[in-house]
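Good morning,

Both structures are done.
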Amino acid sequence: MSYYKPLQYVVPSEEEGFLLKTILQKRLGVSRKLLSRVKLTEQGIMVNGERKYISVKVSEGDLIEVRMELEESEDIMPQEMPLDIIYEDDELLILAKKAGMIVHPTHGHYVNTIANGVVHYWKQKGETVRFRPIHRLDQETSGVLAIAKNAFVHQQISEQMIVHEVKKEYLALVHGVVEGDNGTIDAPIDRDPEQPHVRIVIESGYRAVTHYTVEERYADMTLVRLRLETGRTHQIRVHMKYLGHPLLGDKMYGPEAEALSTDSGQAASDQSLIDRQALHAAKLGFVHPRTKEWIQFEAPLPEDMSQAIEQVKEQL
């Protein structure tokens, strides 16, 4: 049986007599779900090289190790494709996702996804890893995408997201000139009762908070930087529409959506400066689950958004 690199912890004097379970959960950060898996594994939980029950008490100097079995994404077809890799180590793979790419295979989309390319990449390197995206980006959204290489790393960063410790910043081109230099949109979001695939601001919805800062103003267009405090589906797109400044090229929440439902829809679409929602995941930061150090990654503004800006500047 093969394992990922083990998690290790040496018991200090002040933790003499602690239950092994306490050390695993409080010091190593192993979740209840992961703990239930590794304790059934042959070498899942070891103390000084010996398999132990989590009910034993530990002593000063004990070396505690947690091992997770190697896993593969057997249901994802490997497919060679170019990947823009920002960073990689034994625990993480950070990519700059291109607009138009789906992250994970879904019904009707079994190939040509980020997952297909990553699985192929790992197989070529001889790595046995299961594809675990830590977060999702819409198909049309470009930018930083983080992928965990094991269940522990995925769990740890997911928990950081829950308590809002992960830094996520986006850049967006929006319709109109945003007046204030910065602001916060605190407006609840839920499904539209009449169109379940669409989200709307509604009093009975889930709390959603988006902070924004104006980066640059143009003629009837603004580049804004957005920071998410919560992570609701389509949050930025819904909140910017609510503010009166929907994203350029947004066929679900922008003027493009209204135009497409009329006879002038095609003409309005052709006049768009960009053929997708102008949203880019520019920055992602979090505490590395193994090193416990803060790490941060950035992806530059993509060419289509830069070209839209240049087109507007030329019109001035």
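Second structure follows.
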Amino acid sequence: MLDAARALFLEHGYDAISLSDVVGRSGGSLSTLYALFGNKRGLLKAVMQSQFERDMRELDGIINRDSAPETMLLDIAQGTQDYLAAPEMNRFMRFVIGQSLRSPEFGQKFFEQVHLRFIERYVALFARWHSEGLLNIPDPRLAARQFISLVLHDLHVRAIYTGGCGAATSKHEAEQAVALFLAYYRR
């Protein structure tokens, strides 16, 4: 049901689908859907939570490797850019933006429950590197926001204005983002 709901939300938008549409695509019953998710908003929350958990597992898989900062940052930058440049993820970003415009409460919750939780992963990583003497990052929270900006800004702008058209990434772009970051934070 989550996969069907996610696909329908991305194809048609939140307002344009009904729970019956989700049941029609996924099978099962409306009573099961209500029992599992309560209502359409609960279903949307479950879809977003499922996406977040997948994304967090990917990031944690990279962060938990025993790699030098340069290697880890490049893996994160390239992986993130490739992942978010995919057409489905462009639709997902546009969906989140659209929902946030229609429901500021949704946008605030997404920011707090998704974006800030990713930031916290970077903050912990950068604080660890600072304490280990690998990089000089006295303000890990600021560094986390800067790194994410270097990696994601162009992809987000393309998703907003063009639907991600031409959003192919290159290893060179990821390398340059990491090089800029490291040029400032190296000891």
